[in-house]
Amino acid sequence: MKNKIAFFDAKPYDERSFINTNERFGFELKFFKPHLSADTVQLAAGYDAVCIFVNDTLSAPVIDTLLKGGVKIVALRCAGYNNVDLHHALNRLPVVRVPAYSPHAVAEHAFALLLTLNRKTHRAYTRTRDFNFTLNGLMGFDLYGKTIGVVGTGKIGREAVKIARGFGMKVLAFDSYADAQFAKETSCEYTTMERIFAESDVLTLHCPLTPETVHMVNEKSIAAMKKGVVIINTGRGKLIHTKSLIDGLKSGQIGGAGLDVYEEETDYFFEDFSGSMIEDDTLARLMTFPNVIITSHQAFFTEEAMSAIAETTLNNLKLFFAENKRPNEICYKCNIAPCPKETAQGRCF
To answer: pTM to 2 decimals?
Structure first.
């Protein structure tokens, strides 16, 4: 009998990718458009596994209902897991993820935001479409020789470091697990957050969202940054306190912001609101700034990444059902992934 998998927040591109990849796995797939939440969790009753994305909610009540409905495992088709109640899932419901799909995709998008913001190609495109070929207001700066602060040097952050070095930028890096060999190979320098704030012309965020990193960009840290700093965030929205960001933009302390994520994105990103008003005044305010670019959590969205996500997700489920293995299970004990003491089962306990 085929194992049945329920997908939530499923978009047409999810369906195409997973249906094509599933030809090699043979699961029974069902795609639901709504997000997983306490209001929709009953749809998963009778399924062996549930597959969710970044805006789905795996809270304690949802976990309990999934278990009552016979769900044996939850597979995240993403790397982040801040939407999961890890402590409640412990010893109740295994949760596996995709630790890496295409770090190149996300790192490249970070620099696409930076280059667009800096050289104002989005404004130039609109201007020349109206046959306006003036250059007023389009001046940028050379990336060469500038200092970039890379916060988080996991798989994505490392690619960002390499790209920055390709532009001839000086790279200051911060990570809880500094890698001296990587620093030597790429000529980057691990240092403190205080120095990164003080010296960086560009700040790019590639760290996970944890209790320690929530609102790491806030009123105090912005005040400590180099005046005119450009902030790029392709990590998690809540790394930035949005009101403080707006205040920094208004004062000129922040020279620009390229955001692929937003702390209250759940109700808006991946959906079409072009024919209606949005009720989020903060998001609406952000979009009025000429030196802010917002993309809708699309940094991961390449053909290669989508293929890798589907492959890893379905393989996670195959290993679980066929061999009771969980190689990409989140480590609940450490509350991080990957666990620094990772075992064959993906946990340190």
So the answer is: 0.86
